[in-house]
Specification:
heterodimer; A: alpha/beta; Aspartate Aminotransferase, domain 1; Aspartate Aminotransferase, domain 2; 2 domains; seven-stranded mixed sheet; 14 helices; 43% helix; globular; B: alpha/beta; six-stranded antiparallel barrel; 8 helices; 25% helix
Chain lengths: 392, 373
């Protein structure tokens, strides 16, 4: 008997919505024109890109000419950080970020350190929260960029972006936020947040993979990252991926319009899941903040268990979840985020991220928890560490 | 394969360890042919060392090896998983390897890897996957003996490739759940031929000869980097304690070694013994490197649980040693004295001594050679 699979890894990626696909298809075929050309096919494509730019701007409270399309969220992060760093080299060489950023930010900062920039990696508290006070204290005359994520991809913690925005505004430092995980899950308004740059990708909100956008506030100096043609106002070369841009815009419009109706359902599933697991499975802990967390995200550590075995057995029972962030090599290093919130290596290894999405139901929550109870007790039976604890 | 046999096998699930080499690729293909439900598993054992800012990848766990294994699985139409065994590998293989050398012994990391990783950690993961068996690309045969009710380990059909030496430590439980389809093949040429016929990307990959985590073969350098300690030079001495010269540090030497001593003595000299306490390497002249006896510990026997009385065997003191007639005499709990009919060259503490039947080609058991006389 084949049971229905339950997909709860929406933080890794989401299935594309039918409406998004429908909006994209004409731009693969009949409206195939190069958006940089002057004739009719080109103009049709150009119009689609402009409308998409408008839709994205509207969704985040920006102006149309402040939106630049990229090939991914990672590219947007790379461009924002390197672009600001290189453009402001004469002003200073100090960058402030947090210890729990996505690798797209962390590894870029590390690479810049090798090029002579100085980077401060601010610690977080036990909930994964950064302190605005720490940001304030870290800013010095040399500081040219603060980059702090809107919400964490692993443990879902929502950062105090508005407070940080006030500080950077006051100090006159450029502020970038990686909003890849937050987009579609919470209100994103660049004015309220006080950010100067913001990264996103379409595939986290039911849009296409390989689509991304960077918001750059007017007046903020950013060096181009990919050079070539004059696309994206000379700032990001490469023939516009029209279908993908249209898809991202359609997806963000849908997500924004339906957010108020859909997010509470995700929160209900998340909370029920967390409550049941913590109550019914011993030696577990919730990672991240209890309330200031992304609607669909639950991250739990199960002591005496390896995340890898847990995922494997969930997969066999038809459940797709994650133990941290997705990793191409198939390796499962202890997550830098879980270590940063103070978890020991062995506890970090036994962690599970469940991220709910549109297709999930409350019944799914029950089925996942029931499966987890069986799997966790079976895996613990095999663990010598658990044996020792039980016999105490 | 008859339809009848296929029916028996249908639904039996086997997880095969796939290193990304030609042997395990072909073993997977053969199991699929036999009708098993085959799942490929690449064990992530070791990341390689960072040296001069570049990653020196081991031969068997590199990302390209993982990719090769994955392509073979796609080609064969079987599932493929990559799983992390790095913590166990570090503990049971790398740390053991380093400790043994520091204690003046010569370890065999493949035996440790088989015992703790392939037939223990991997077996446990396979059970989680709901598998009935694990399989490997080793050249050896496993048979069930109705009479004794035990699983037996037998040399491969292709004696030149036989790998039973590194498998003597398998328990009955492990043997009962293990398949080694290459044991029936005629040798490496046949394996490569099958791989080529199937158009597997691994068909022409060269054989790995060195220790997988020391791709440049400089194991002493590996140990120094790993421990962060430079080895301390000491004296070469003869059997009477007379100083003959200076050595580079004991980890650079292994019993029986003649080449690469770094000093010439006007006549061939061999490493007879490594004395950790005194930091000395004892050398002897040609002829003295032979001895007729050894003590073995951590014994494992395959056709029976323990040895109660002396038996006659054919024994091998290293992977490439010529098999030699010997008597194994149990002395105390899990220890035995092995007396050879003819003296053996360079009996090396830390290496395994493996026993075979005097008539036939079954493995009787084996143990680790101690330094005791």
């Amino acid at each position: 008997m084949e049971t229905k699979r339950i997909y709860v890894d929406h933080a890794a990626t989401t299935p594309m919505r039918r409406e998004v696909l429908d909006a994209m298809i004409p731009y693969f075929t009949e409206n195939f024109g190069n958006a940089s050309t002057v004739y009719q096919e080109g103009r049709t494509a150009k119009k689609a890109v402009s409308e998409a730019r408008d839709a994205v701007a509207k969704a985040i409270g920006a102006n149309t000419d402040e939106i630049f399309f990229t090939g991914s969220g990672t590219e947007a992060d790379n461009w924002a950080i390197r672009g600001v760093a290189y453009a402001n080299k004469a002003k200073g060489n100090h960058i402030i970020t947090s210890a729990v950023e996505h690798h797209a930010v962390l590894h870029t900062c590390q690479a810049l350190e090798k090029e002579g920039f100085r980077v401060t990696y601010l610690p977080v508290d036990e909930f994964g929260m950064i302190s605005p006070e720490d940001v304030k204290n870290a800013i010095c005359d040399e500081t040219i960029l603060v980059t702090i994520m809107t919400a964490n991809n692993e443990i879902g913690t929502i950062m105090p972006i508005e407070e940080i925005g006030k500080i950077t505004r006051e100090k006159g430092v450029v502020f970038h936020t990686d909003a890849v995980q937050a987009m579609g899950m919470m209100e994103i308004d660049v004015e309220k947040m006080g950010v100067d740059l913001l990264s996103m990708t379409g595939h986290k909100f039911y849009g296409p993979k390989g689509s991304g956008a960077l918001y750059i506030r007017k007046g903020v100096k950013v060096k181009p990252f990919i050079t070539g043609g004059a696309q994206e106002k000379n700032k990001r070369a490469g023939t516009e991926n029209v279908a993908s841009i249209v898809g991202l815009a359609k997806a963000i419009s849908l997500a924004t319009a339906e957010r108020c109706e859909k997010v509470p359902a995700l929160e209900k599933m998340r909370d029920k899941f967390i409550d049941r697991v913590l109550e019914e499975i011993p030696y577990t802990r919730l990672n991240g903040h209890r309330t200031k967390r992304l609607a669909g995200n639950a991250n739990i550590s199960f002591e005496f268990i390896e995340g890898e075995s847990l995922l494997l057995m969930l997969d066999m029972q038809g459940i797709s979840a994650s133990s941290g962030s997705a990793c191409t090599s198939g390796s499962l290093d202890p997550s830098h985020v879980l270590l940063a919130i103070g978890l020991k290596h062995e506890v970090a290894h036994g962690s599970l991220r469940v991220s709910f999405g549109e297709s999930n139901t409350m019944d799914d929550v029950d089925r996942i928890v029931d499966s987890l109870k069986n799997i966790v007790s079976r895996l613990r039976e095999m663990s010598p560490l658990y044996e020792a604890v039980k016999n105490k | 394969m008859s339809a009848f046999l296929k029916n028996i096998m249908a639904g039996k699930k086997v997880v095969i360890g796939m290193s990304g080499g030609v042997d395990s690729s072909v073993a997977a293909a053969l199991l699929k042919d036999k009708g098993y439900d085959v799942v490929g598993l690449t064990m992530r054992l070791w990341d390689g060392e960072m040296r001069d800012g570049c990653l020196s990848e081991g031969t068997c766990c590199s990302l390209s090896a993982v990719e090769d294994a994955r392509y073979v699985c796609y080609k064969l139409g079987i599932e493929h998983h990559v799983m992390d065994f790095r913590a166990d590998f570090e503990k049971y293989v790398i740390d053991y390897f380093v400790d043994e050398y520091k204690n003046g012994r010569t370890p065999n990391p493949c035996i440790a890897c088989n015992k703790f990783l392939k037939f223990d950690a991997m077996l446990k993961k396979a059970e989680l996957l709901g598998a009935d068996y694990v399989a490997t690309g080793h050249y050896a045969k496993i048979e069930f003996d109705e009479k004794s009710g035990r699983y037996l380990l037998k040399c491969a059909e292709a004696l030149g490739k036989d790998q039973t030496y590194a498998l003597y430590s398998l328990t009955q439980e492990q043997l009962s759940k293990t398949l080694m389809p290459l044991g029936e093949l005629g040798g490496k040429e046949e394996t490569r031929k099958i791989a080529e016929e199937r158009d597997l990307v691994t068909a022409k990959k060269p054989d790995s000869m060195e220790i997988c985590f020391v791709p440049d073969n400089d194991y002493a350098g590996f140990i120094e980097r790993r421990t962060g300690e430079e080895t301390i030079p000491g004296d070469f001495v003869d059997e009477n304690g007379n100083v003959l010269g200076k050595h580079k540090g004991i980890i650079h030497y292994t019993v029986g070694q003649r080449k690469g001593l770094g000093v010439t003595f006007g006549k061939p000299m061999f490493v007879l013994k490594i004395d950790v306490e005194k930091n000395q390497v004892v050398l002897g002249e040609k002829g003295t490197e032979f001895s007729s006896e050894l003590m073995a510990e951590k014994l494992n026997f395959i056709p029976f649980d323990c040895l109660d009385e002396p038996i006659r065997v054919i024994a091998k003191v290293r992977y490439s040693a010529k098999p030699a007639l010997a008597t194994v005499i149990p002395v105390e709990e899990n220890k035995a004295r092995v007396i050879f009919d003819e003296p053996q060259r360079a009996i090396t503490p830390g290496q395994a001594v493996v026993f075979y039947e005097t008539q036939g080609d079954h493995v009787v058991g084996g143990g680790i050679i101690t330094g005791e006389k």
